[in-house]
Amino acid sequence: MIKYIIRFLILNAAALVYVQSLAAADYDVRDFGAVNDGLFVNTRIIQHAIDHVHAGGGGRLVFEPGAYVTGSIYLKSNVTLHLEQGATLLGSTNPWDYVKDPTVGWKSMIFAIRQENVGITGKGMIDGRGFVTANNMIKYIQKGLFDDPLRNDRPGETNRPENIYFRECVNVTITGITLKDPASWNQTYDQCRNVYVDGITTDCKAYWNNDGIDIVDCDGVVIKNSYFDAADDVICFKSHDANAICQNVTVDNCTGRSSANGLKFGTVSRGGFRNFKITNLTIFDTFRSAITFAAVDGGTIENIVVDGVKSINTGNVIYLRIGDRWSNGKKPVLKDIVIRNVYAEVPYDKPDAGYGYEGPVEDNPRNISPAAIVGLPGLRIQNVTLENIEIVYPGRGDSLYAKVGLTPDELDAIPEMEKSYPEFSQFRELPAWGFYVRHADGITFRNVTFTATAPDYRPAIVTDDVKGVTFTGVKFNEPGSNGKQQIFNYKTSNINIE
Question: Which residue from 9, 58, 189, 476 has the highest number of Cβ atoms inside 10 Å of its Cβ?
């Protein structure tokens, strides 16, 4: 653990030195002919300016206030884009102005591929105008000018431009900026080392698949003091390469809202994730889970600490899941997880109602879902500690509306769904109102309080095929529940209630 802390102190210090070093040489993009009138397309001019700064040894390419329209540009080593307050890099709404990079197979406004010491800083904005761009692309697809299957009446994610895509870069600094309205994911850092993100704001809820930030198979990442408002997952860690891993990551003092998930590991999880510490996280108005770990593609999730979460008006709080979707013979692993110091409120109504892109109501069960830890019979979740947690539920689960009871037949009938996309609602009705644990070993509840504001026909906790579960200082508050059995254990051994 000491080695882990020292690593992140070094990473923070290195990022600070890098930002300071970039300030040594400034170049005004207007001196290269850039026009900030919001109309003129500056793609070639900005690229020429980046190439010039790179060839001269590096520095900051400065954008003074105004709107600079651009298509795809490539950032080069030792160059940062510095956006002054009032400056906007404005995405072209012409889909043909964007490159589908052959290395990553995605489109983006700003690329950096195998570069070092690159960054985007300042108080300015990157506005992809993605809603307009994506709809313009649909017109070209319908005319047969662009090849895309147009599934769900929208172009595929890889054919719509992100705002930022950095791949295999070393020493990446993103600070202060606002990222708005991409046509696809917002910002992706893929197989990068030493990524530092601080004080950014994202407003990416104008189109489908608008994640807040995606970290893919990176080593050494800091994300802090940032705000995310996303149509899709807020802070999303992915592992696309079965031979790679996303590791050594800290997230601190971030706030997010989503019509999907808040903090998410996966869904693509081929290699895995290890050595994460997430602190002081606030999630609100979020359709799915505040915290989701999904080891469903053969990867490993291990040594993760989540410490300090405020989850207000979220459809679910904690969902830990092992599946066997795209494992290709690998055995997924989910173990050594600590989640502590959490306060959460789950509403009865849809938590993201009224936002432009809402989560699909057809995914919801009839009764409110509990938090859950769900493995598979041969692929068990191991060693999870839940400590100092309070979750407030609406109750109102009604057996006459939809029912899963506690008989062996009813519990055994809950499907395994090992090939399904992992979401808290995937099982539809579950037999607990607070927490459901299945196919797991070494689960600890310590100082956890479950409150239902109205009666619920179900017990608070149901365990099924759990080997080793400890309940210490667990409390239940449910109106009219005197004498009710709130913990129901089925096929569970080594039970310790203190």
Answer: 189
- In this structure, the dihedral spanned by the alpha carbons of residues 257, 191, 189 and 164, taken in order and rounded to 10 degrees, is -140
Cα separation, 244 vs 64, whole angstroms: 40
Please tell me the distance from the alpha carbon of residue 17 to that of residue 121, in angstroms, as a whole number: 14
Element housing 136 (H / E): helix 130-142
Mapping DSSP onto H, E and C, the string for 259-297 reads CCCCEEEEEEECCEEEEEEEEEEEEEEEEEEEEEEEECC
The SS3 call for residue 338 is: strand
Q: Which residue has the tokens 């999630």?
A: 283
Tokens of 146: 């662009």
Answer whether 292's CB lies under 8 Å from 266's CB: yes
Residue closest to 325 by CA, chosen among 246, 266, 369: 266
Residue type, 33: G
CA 448 to chain centre: 25
Provide the token pair at 307. Answer: 């410490």
Phi, psi of 32 (to 5 degrees): -95, 0
User: Do residues 194 and 15 make contact, with C-beta atoms less than 8 angstroms apart?
Assistant: yes
- Band (pLDDT 50/70/90 cuts) for residue 337 is very high
pLDDT tens per residue, range 105-156:
999 999 999 999 999 999 999 999 999 999 999 999 999 999 999 999 999 9
* Mean pLDDT score, 479-489: 96
Please choose, from the candidates 86, 97, 80, the residue with its C-alpha nearest in 3D space to the C-alpha of residue 132.
97
CA proximity to 202, closest of 185, 216, 219, 222: 185
pTM above 0.85, yes or no: yes
The pLDDT assigned to 361 comes to 87
Rg of the chain (C-alpha set):
24
